[in-house]
Amino acid sequence: MQQSASSRPLIGVALVIGSCLSLPFGAAIAAQLFPVLGPWGVTSMRVAIAALLLVVIVRPRPRRWTRSQWTAAALFGLSLAAMNASFYAAIDRIPLGPAVAIEFLGPLVLAAILTRRLADAAWVAVAVIGVALLAVDGLIGSEPLDPLGVLFVLVAAGFWIMYIRMSARVGAVIPGSGGLAMGLVVAAVLLLPVGVPAAITVAGDLNLLLLAALTAVLSSVIPYSFELAALRRLPQRVFGVLLSLEPAFATLAGWLVLGQSATPLRMLAVALVVLASLGTTLGVRRQRRRDEEGPFTAPIPLPD
Questions:
Q1: In a domain, 299, yes or no
Q2: Tally of domains in the chain
Q3: Domain carrying residue 247
Q4: Which of 14, 94, 112, 126 has a Cα-to-Cα distance from 241 of 20 to 30 A?
């Protein structure tokens, strides 16, 4: 059954929320593996298991792809490998909530660049304030932020921009989830040098293997599938602002799974990012009602 035009953005919003819920809980579980496998080893195992699962489920047929499709999948895989490796290196040094807040500077910058309406810019500003408060809380609170951890998460923020752009590109030029599956294969190959020792360790411990598999499902298979589908329904600027929910859920996951504190300042920051996401969602619905021609905005061309 074909979806109505009005239902497409709402489904896209629901998919982004599902991704924002899944990712930080997967990261919280991954952090528990760091003492044994290290952040780079956990990243490699997570990506490799996710790639294996999706290749088996999706059964992509890359031999039929064009050069443009292969380029998109390869760049997508590069962004996945770099973003995940640098982010896991960061949360090995700084708390999960502030790490995700700082990393969110990536999609915020993208949303600010792509925004075309004053209302969009206002909600981006609200989200920026919330993210800044989370970062300030990490600086002045009981858990000061490690400078190297901050550097790693800023690198992750840059590759998050690349991930959003290439995810949209892959969704546009490769039908279904084949592009995601092959992107994860590329990422797994790139991370192979740091993944071999981790794979040897995991192979001899069923509990570690199960935790690594759960991390792969929560941090890769579910969120990346949801986000790929969401970017087929939402403009990149709206997608970027909606991701402001992720620092809120990361704070919750850090508190529930890792026992990391949630201060009043952090709660205020969470309220602001949630408000920004709600405002953006309502704006999407109003814009869809006014726009009878289909898309919200013409997509910005991406290079082949």
A1: no
A2: 1
A3: 7-289
A4: 94
Cα separations in angstroms, 1 against 4, 142, 228? 9, 53, 20
Q: What band does 296 get if pLDDT is binned at 50, 70 and 90?
A: very low
Q: How many helices (H) and strands (E) does the chain have?
A: 14, 0
The DSSP symbol for 144 reads P
Nearest to 174 by CA among 298, 60, 7, 35: 60
Give helix 96-103 / helix 67-91 axis angle, nearest 10°. 140
- Kindly compute the dihedral angle of the four CA atoms of residues 203, 21, 180, 166, in this order, to the nearest 10 degrees: -130
Of the candidates 23, 166, 164, the residue with the CA atom closest to the CA atom of residue 107? 164
Going from the C-alpha of 102 to that of each of 27, 65, 87, 127, 229, the distances in angstroms are 15, 37, 10, 12, 25
Using 50, 70 and 90 to split pLDDT, how confident is the model at 304?
very low
In a domain, 297, yes or no: no
- Residue 302 inside a domain? The answer is no
296 domain residue, yes or no: no
203 token code pair: 């192979």
- Residue pointed to by tokens 């508190």: 255
Tell me if the pTM is above 0.85. no
Distance CA(118)–CA(89), nearest Å, equals 37
If we measure between CA atoms, which residue out of 201, 240, 270 comes closest to residue 42?
A: 201
